[in-house]
Structure formats: structure tokens, C-alpha cells
Amino acid sequence: MAKLEDFTPGTLVDGIIEKAAVEVISTKWHGDSAAEITYKTPETGQTNSILLYRDDEYKFEITEEGRPWGFDADGSLFRLVSEAVRIRLAYLFDPLLAVHTSLVEPLPHQITAVYEEMLTRQPLRFLLADDPGAGKTIMAGLLIKELIARGDLGVEMAPEKIPSIQKNIIRKAREAGKPVVVATQMLESMINNQTPTRAEASDVATAIYDPGELESEYSNEVGSSPMDFVDITLSEIGTDVYASGDQFDVIVSMNNPTEIAGIQIVLQDVPESVTMVNVEGLGRLEGEDLNSFSADFNGEATILWFSFTGEVLEAGDGEIIQVTYQVNDDVDGGPCEISLNTTEAGTALSDSAGNAFFYNGDSTTTVNIAYDANLSLVQTSDTTFDVILLNTVDVAGIQVTIIDDPDNYTFSSVQGADRLPADWMVSGNENNGIVLLGFSFTGCLYSSK
After folding, report:
1. Residue 168 backbone dihedrals phi, psi, to 5 degrees
2. In this predicted model, what pLDDT tens digit does every residue of 139-167 receive, in sequence order?
3. What is the 3-state secondary structure (H, E, C) of 99-114?
4. The pTM is what?
5. Residue 35: HSE in the Cβ half-sphere, 13 Å Cα cutoff
6. Calpha distance 349→260 (Å, rounded)
7. Per-residue confidence at 356, pLDDT binned at 50, 70, 90?
8. Of the candidates 153, 329, 418, 427, which lies 20 to 30 Å from 109 by C-alpha distance?
9. How is 382-439 classified by DSSP, letter by letter?
């Protein structure tokens, strides 16, 4: 197993592509757990890129330098491939390929029409032929056969019509009991481009809708222009304690190396304790109306940003969104963790073509929610401490145990503060720590404030 740190320039790595080791050209880190590896394939020298994570390390091995090829493959398969390539390129060597591979004997005027008129007028938008007995069917058949052999059939019609025609060819071949193979370099162009060619789109449609065999080499290939990696972080809230109705802010920052056209930020609070009440744009999104496209539902705050006029979030690094939360009523006290929802239905970023960005959404922040009664200890001098009670309900009695480790303090005395009711009695003693008691013999309550 190879570590991501082992992917240094010049290293040969096995496992990135099938049946061959690739040479690492460069490594670009995205945090500590992801790296974008640019590599070169041994056969063609073509460069590609792939984004790898720590979880992928077990798939790869560092190999010793050796021959990128061998003579141990199946000879019959090699002959089959060679023959297929020969047939595919036959039109380059035989100017009348369709004639010599068909069971017809075309007349001279038909050969002239196909090879000197129609094939030389590519793309041929339409053809008018109304001369009876001229052999229009033979000429059309020869033209189509030549276009198929040359890989130019798609030039003759709208791209949306190609799948249906391919379907009819496959259907008729199967009805005649002939084997059908859809041979394609499906998605090869997307190694270097973000969109497929129309022929590739047609082959994908045919492969899905028709029961023919499919041969493809590139459907699992990694593109050389992957989407950029975006970092999303949430600000720290601090150590303050927030009671029901209190509000606080969470700042969303983004580091995007390229433009972003659409943003969906989904924040979840666990346990569900707070509700988003306002959203404001900051920095590059300052002045944007984010409230109109944002909502808080079932413990998740969803924030949307996009532009109907094609505006984008410029590349940069900094704060972009301020989310204001309010603590819910009757909420249990304790820590509440706010984080990005990174599931498929959660946070998403895209470019103008709708392509999704990779992003790092591991950032979390925690808010401290007040309990019904919260106790804290504040040192006021070398030997005195104040016990602070923040309560939202009336309290009938208090017991506090203070542990000092190492044991440097011994209990001396305790007295009630001004807020404590006059008829409350407070006392203290040493008992595996300093134990303080406070209560009223008359049932007087320590009221909430």
C-alpha cells in the first residue's frame, strides 16, 4: 500500500489505471487528507489528473521502473484488434471500399455520383433525386456504407436523430440473427474536455436502451481537467453560554481557486437546538439577498445563492455569509454542534455548466446552550471564589461539590451573596472535597432572573 506522501515526481505508481504503472508528474495537496495527482501514461505519454483521498491509499503500489509493455497478451485478441483497425482504416487505401465490399455491381454513373459528387460535398445537407431508374437506392446505400466506414455518418443528420437510427440498425440486425457490437471510444474526449462529442452521447444512449454488446475503453478514465477543490470553514462561536431566545452569529468562509456559479450551503445543528433567523452576504457576496432563497427546516438551515443574469462568485478566499441563529424555546442545555451537511442532498457547489466542485466540509463549530440552571466557579482572590448560578427556573436548594487537584485548599467559611434570599441558610464542610449547601427552612425559592 502506498501513502499519499509517496506520490513524488518521477515515482511509478500501479493502480491508477488498469494494467499499467503511471509516472507521477506533480502532487498538489488539498489539506492533509486529499491530493491532486498529475501523472503520465506509459503508452501515449498523455497527462491526466486524479483527486485521491486517504481512503484510497490501499488501492495503489509504488513499483520499480520496467518495461511498460510485454509479449504475454492473448495473441488471438491482438489479431482481432489488428484486423478491426485494418477494416476501420480500409477506406484510406481503397477508394471504392463500399463497392468492393458489397454484393452489387454499380453502374459508372452511380460510382461517379457517390464518389465524385456526394462524398466530396460534406456535410451534405439534402439530396434531390427524381430520375426514375437511376439507381437511387444503390447510390444511397453506397453513400451510407462509405460514411459508416469513414466514421462520418453523424455529419449527415442532426445529432438527436443518431440514437434512433442506431437503434433501428441494431434491431434489424438482431431480427436477422446477426451479432451486434457497438464499438466506441465512449467518453474518450472527456479525458481532456468537460463535455462529450455527439457521437459519444449517441453511443451512451444506444448502450443504455438497446441490448447490443458494448465495447468501450474510456468510460472509467479520469479526466485531465478535474473540478477545483474548494475549502469551506465555519467560524468559532466562543465559550459564551446562550439561553432560550438569545442570538449568535456563524460566519461561513470559502476559499475557491476558480469562479463558482451556484452555492447551496446546508448547515445542521445536533442536537436540534437553534434556528436560523437571518442570512447576510459578506465580502464577495455583500449586498446579495440571501434571505429570499434560504430556509430552516427540520434542524437544517439551507442557504442558496445563484444569479439569473450569469454572475459568479469570483475566485478568492474570505468570509462570504453571516448566519444568525436563535436558541429555541424549551431546549435542553449543553453543547450543540453546527456543521456542514456533506451528504448527496446537502452542501453543493457548481460552475456555470452545472459541474460540481469537490469541497472540504469538515469544519464544525459548537455553541453552549444554557441549562435550566448553570453553575460556574470564579476565583476572586488567592483564597476566595464566587459560585455563580444562572437559572431560568426557580431553585429550592443548592448542593455544590468543589474538587481541587492537587489538594491545595481547605474550607474556611461561606456566606450568601446579595441575590440569595435572606432566609436561606448556607453552610460548607470538607468531605472528599469542599461541599456547599444552600436552602430555606420556610420554602423560599431562589427565583430565576
Report:
1. -65, -40
2. 888 888 888 877 776 555 666 777 777 77
3. HHCCCCCCCHHHHHHH
4. 0.45
5. 20
6. 7
7. confident
8. 153
9. SS-EEEEEEESS-BSEEEEEE--SS-----------TTS-TTEEEEEEESSSEEEEEE
